[in-house]
Amino acid sequence: xxxxxxxxxxxxxxxxxxxxxxxxxxxxxxxxxxxxxxxxxxxxxxxxxxxxxxxxxxxxxxxxxxxxxxxxxxxxxxxxxxxxxxxxxxxxxxxxxxxxxxxxxxxxxxxxxxxxxxxxxxxxxxxxxxxxxxxxxxxxxxxxxxxxxxxxxxxxxxxxxxxxxxxxxxxxxxxxxxxxxxxxxxxxxxxxxxxxxxxxxxxxxxxxxxxxxxxxxxxxxxxxxxxxxxxxxxxxxxxxxxxxxxxxxxxxxxxxxxxxxxxxxxxxxxxxxxxxxxxxxxxxxxxxxxxxxxxxxxxxxxxxxxxxxxxxxxxxxxxxxxxxxxxxxxxxxxxxxxxxxxxxxxxxxxxxxxxxxxxxx
Amino acid sequence: xxxxxxxxxxxxxxxxxxxxxxxxxxxxxxxxxxxxxxxxxxxxxxxxxxxxxxxxxxxxxxxxxxxxxxxxxxxxxxxxxxxxxxxxxxxxxxxxxxxxxxxxxxxxxxxxxxxxxxxxxxxxxxxxxxxxxxxxxxxxxxxxxxxxxxxxxxxxxxxxxxxxxxxxxxxxxxxxxxxxxxxxxxxxxxxxxxxxxxxxxxxxxxxxxxxxxxxxxxxxxxxxxxxxxxxxxxxxxxxxxxxxxxxxxxxxxxxxxxxxxxxxxxxxxxxxxxxxxxxxxxxxxxxxxxxxxxxxxxxxxxxxxxxxxxxxxxxxxxxxxxxxxxxxxxxxxxxxxxxxxxxxxxxxxxxxxxxxxxxxx
Lengths: 361, 361
Prior knowledge:
The structure is a homodimer.
Chain A: H1 4-8, E1 14-16, H2 25-33, E2 38-41, H3 47-60, E3 65-70, H4 79-95, H5 115-124, E4 128-132, H6 138-146, E5 150-155, H7 158-167, E6 171-175, E7 181-182, H8 197-207, E8 212-215, H9 221-229, E9 234-237, H10 239-242, H11 251-257, E10 266-268, E11 276-278, H12 301-315, H13 338-352
Parallel strand pairs in A: 1-9, 2-3, 3-4, 4-5, 5-6, 6-8, 8-9
Antiparallel strand pairs in A: 7-11, 10-11
């Protein structure tokens, strides 16, 4: 099995997780310049905006970086479900003197149906492309690989990892239940084994003939050392980077991250229509009030309403309806600049590993 | 901070988890003789039976061992809830030509209300006593410590760990959400942060001035090395020992452990009245059928019904209603004799740690 670090050309077994709406090209460039792998997420933008983001990363670094896309099955629009959802949310909008949108749209195209994004990747050739929520077609994977792009896919269990391996990706991101943000399950309606990063990493490292990247609950170099012991070739950290100045998290999100709620993150599908781990806030609290027992529309249709509600509340000074994603390690978050954080992670990792040689040479 | 291994007098940072109904004195003795810490669980028996179990361990080993007790708040008997529960279960009993018990009893005394068990410990002085589901009174803790007994307490979050530290225990068992069997939450009706072992261990290692023992999803020496990197002083493994010949798991339990369901363990309160992680079986499946939406009586009142159902089904050849507890690492279970398993864990751990000195000297 190839060394993943060598294959990509990075010095440290550390990946800054792509976080749509929170990670930025400046963050990715700073991380990559520090010897780790920086990432941007373009799942929530179109190819034109993605082109600008890729250009911005490249203007900040000549080192490798990762571009993440969403590969969800396109949503099923169900009119009755959207209507019930908006009716339930209407009471919440009313608190902020606003009305819910008249109808809900599928606000993001899935990469599986986005020809323009594929063409952009084939043209601009980012060093790494990573898939979340599933896989694109075999043909798309073949074309990306032929363009020299290294491919990662998220998996939350063995069968998703096996599917990704069969499809020809180069590495598996083993996303534990601890992880912040959207859970990468391929089918959000299927039973979820909720595997923690410890069990999942160890299982995939033993059963999958591809490098494993462990993700979920890892906040420092000790956590990185731990997943390397488990057989991962690298660790992916998202929440650790949310507090960086290069993050686009707003003040309410940062306050929540560094507040007492960090100890009680929740998995919720109310904000976007797919399960995602979030800091407890006014939106997650709706599970016990206005949204109790109401079924959310499919991702990302529900997210159209969720974003509208966050904006309406924010306009009245209430920041607590944002998508304040965070993993279970949130109480260990730090507010360091991204490059400084990578250096700290490196030093802590080496200290935890007792200076065993783990860096690519 | 004292070294936990030195304090207890064990050679390996490995603890065989106490598992009421599954671990045995023979298992504990074999594990302790192999240099780890063996455990028995006496939460489901009275002081007379516990005396015999402690004697059986001592007849097999002169090495230290651990005796575990349940410290749940005594159950509230709610007649209506018990009646509804029995009515719902009646349909399941009927499938096996049986009837549910006429009423349900609180089948286990909590250690917090068991004077005979306390007297037994003060007399027999097991080297370690561990608490699950909460803590006994400060007076009890003081008497056990004065008798020279080292005390562990399970915690699933920072506030439980802080309470245990304030109460004067000697070490915290950081039980991740991955762990098999009963979740150690002090209050099963409070919101559960569901922290995985990675985040929980790292959090407690940084915030609690006591040795941390990591538990949940650890199945091999790589997992032990990982939690040592996270700052734990030892790892506690339960599911890893269920398949040992010294375990009292019946054949149906062993078949389930080594079957495909091992990848899909479930947290369920249906069997005992408290959340516990179980292999998917006929009992856990009742969540979608006869027990859908029915509230279980308090632990251990519900367990009275659960055990009766398991026995009724077993009498007709159906073993799938047992308490087949297992953690998320279940797919990595092995059927080695306990002493051989401890040796394998040791070798794997040293290999993962690159032969750093981690054994007590």
